[in-house]
Amino acid sequence: MILAQMMPAEGEADARWDALLETEESQRLLEKMADEALTEIQAGLARPMIFTEDGEVTPGE
């Protein structure tokens, strides 16, 4: 698929994500996930994310 054909579909997908993330329910869920992540970090349960040169995630330390 050429770039010009891909752009409208990507724009539509971005608009759908924007609409989804603007809802109050989404904001509550994002806040809950952030709180859970912070709790895991503070408890020492989180590990750093290490990326390869091509952008793949590898196991952390």
Overall number of domains: 1
User: What oligomeric state do the depicted chains represent?
Assistant: single chain
Q: Roughly what is the average pLDDT, rounded to an integer?
A: 86
As laid out across the biggest beta sheet, the strand order is 1-2
Q: Report the radius of gyration as a whole number of Å.
A: 17 Å
3D architecture notes:
There is one protein chain. A hairpin with a 5-residue loop joins strand 1 (about 50) and strand 2. It contains two helices and two strands; from the N terminus they run H-H-E-E. The protein has one domain (about 10-60). The protein is mainly α and about 60 residues long. The N and C termini lie far apart (about 40 Å). It has helices at about 5-20, 25-40; strands at about 50, 55-60. The chain has a two-stranded antiparallel sheet with strand order 1-2. The longest helix is centred in the first third of the chain and has 19 residues, at about 5-20.
